[in-house]
């Protein structure tokens, strides 16, 4: 028996060697096929000339094209539109191919200045002369929302702005200001009157309208959002109605592109339990790393299965926390300043 085993042993080793060789061969062949298949994946190049780059960014990423942007300035053409593409539309190319796009810079490039803490007159003067390269250009004020001063806030002073300071953008982007009411009677008449002039909040940024209502201790509800006709209306109040139970706000909203550094975000949450809820927004202030915390919903009773909507402006890494008085933390949203 022992002798028979010794005779078979060399043959089994040979068979094992051949088997391992075949296994290695098939694995290698499989990998070659996978790699070649991956390399040979083709995509159809779309026609993007004349479209705004923001609108096609996600589609080009889906096609796995490596986009390289170049710029050209033609003032009479719309800012951000694509002037040329290096790959002709309709051409089949491999996924991962480089695509060069020439994008129009129709406006002067500027960095949004910080006007928080300035009185309105001084802020207007700063926005009239913003440096762009070697020349000064004006920034247009999209709107001014007046709110009651709280604590030791001085009257007629900028307490918030959208876009936030430091954003690199173009001179055609409008800037919105949140300003404390002046003690001057004439200026005070420009602010919202709960029963007669609530329409003044229409066209203002939703977070500014919420700030006003928070200061007035008026509960609010954000209704379904609607798509705006023009992109510049994104994030603004589309409708406002004051009812005995509180304010109802409509919002213009476009789903933000992942390429945008600053944008509005709608946060939705289906309430789990009947409770009284509050929501806090917090972020680290750029420059001095101080923590800023702000209540954007205060002690509002909400019922189970009710849909809560909050609108915030994301300019840096931001956290929003929803807390029930009895049930504790219900939801935490963490938003990145840059996606």
List keywords for this structure.
membrane, transmembrane helix, PASTA domain-containing protein, Trypsin Inhibitor V, Chain A, four-stranded antiparallel sheet, transmembrane, alpha+beta, three-stranded mixed sheet, 5 helices, about 350 residues, globular
Tell me what you see in this structure.
Keywords: Membrane, Transmembrane, Transmembrane helix. InterPro entries: PASTA_dom. Residues 39-105, 106-181 form the PASTA domain. The protein is α+β, with helices and mostly antiparallel strands. Among the domains are: 42-104, Trypsin Inhibitor V, Chain A (2-Layer Sandwich); 107-191, 2-Layer Sandwich (Trypsin Inhibitor V, Chain A). It is 21% helix and 38% strand. It is built from five helices and 21 strands. The chain has helices at residues 2-39, 53-62, 120-128, 185-188, 206-215, and strands at 42-44, 66-72, 82-85, 92-94, 98-104, 109-111, 130-132, 135-137, 141-147, 158-162, 168-170, 175-180, 220-226, 237-243, 246-252, 263-270, 275-284, 291-302, 307-314, 318-324, 328-335. It is globular, with a radius of gyration of 29 Å. It starts with a helix and ends with a strand.
Unreliable runs: 4-9, 185-196
Mean of residue pLDDT values: 85
State the CATH topology of the domain at 107-191: Trypsin Inhibitor V, Chain A
| Main sheet characteristics | 4 strands, antiparallel
What is the topology?
Blueprint: H1 2-39, E1 42-44, H2 53-62, E2 66-72, E3 82-85, E4 92-94, E5 98-104, E6 109-111, H3 120-128, E7 130-132, E8 135-137, E9 141-147, E10 158-162, E11 168-170, E12 175-180, H4 185-188, H5 206-215, E13 220-226, E14 237-243, E15 246-252, E16 263-270, E17 275-284, E18 291-302, E19 307-314, E20 318-324, E21 328-335
Parallel strand pairs: 2-5, 9-12, 13-15
Antiparallel strand pairs: 1-4, 3-5, 6-11, 7-8, 10-12, 14-15, 16-19, 17-18, 17-20, 20-21
């Amino acid at each position: 028996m022992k002798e028979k085993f010794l005779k078979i042993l060399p043959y089994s080793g040979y068979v094992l060697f051949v088997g391992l060789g075949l296994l290695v061969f098939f694995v290698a062949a499989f990998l070659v096929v996978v790699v070649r298949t991956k390399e040979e994946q083709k995509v159809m190049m779309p026609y993007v000339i004349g479209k705004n780059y923001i609108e096609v960014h996600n589609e080009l990423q889906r096609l796995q094209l490596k986009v390289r942007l170049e710029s050209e300035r033609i003032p009479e053409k719309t800012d951000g539109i694509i002037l040329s593409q290096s790959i002709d539309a309709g051409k089949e190319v491999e996924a991962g191919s480089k695509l060069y796009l020439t994008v129009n810079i129709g406006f002067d490039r500027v960095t949004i200045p910080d006007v928080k803490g300035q009185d309105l007159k001084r802020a207007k003067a700063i926005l009239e002369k913003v440096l762009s390269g070697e020349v000064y250009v004006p920034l247009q004020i999209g709107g001014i929302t007046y709110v009651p001063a709280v604590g030791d806030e001085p009257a007629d002073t900028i307490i918030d702005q959208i876009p936030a300071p430091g954003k690199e953008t173009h001179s055609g982007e409008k800037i919105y200001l949140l300003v404390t009411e002046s003690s001057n009677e004439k200026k005070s008449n420009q602010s919202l009157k709960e029963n007669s002039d609530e329409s003044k909040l229409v066209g203002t940024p939703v977070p500014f309208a919420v700030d006003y209502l928070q200061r007035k201790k008026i509960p609010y509800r954000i209704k379904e959002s609607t798509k705006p006709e023009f992109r510049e209306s994104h994030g603004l109040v589309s409708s406002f109605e004051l009812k005995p139970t509180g304010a109802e706000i409509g919002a213009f909203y476009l789903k933000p592109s992942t390429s945008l550094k600053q944008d509005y975000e709608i946060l939705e949450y289906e309430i789990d339990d009947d409770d009284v809820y509050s929501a806090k927004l917090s972020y680290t202030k750029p420059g001095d790393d101080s923590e800023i915390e702000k209540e954007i919903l205060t002690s509002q009773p909400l019922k189970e299965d009710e849909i809560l909507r909050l609108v915030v402006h994301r300019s840096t890494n931001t956290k929003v926390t929803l807390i029930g008085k009895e049930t504790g933390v219900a939801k935490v949203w963490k938003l990145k300043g840059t996606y």
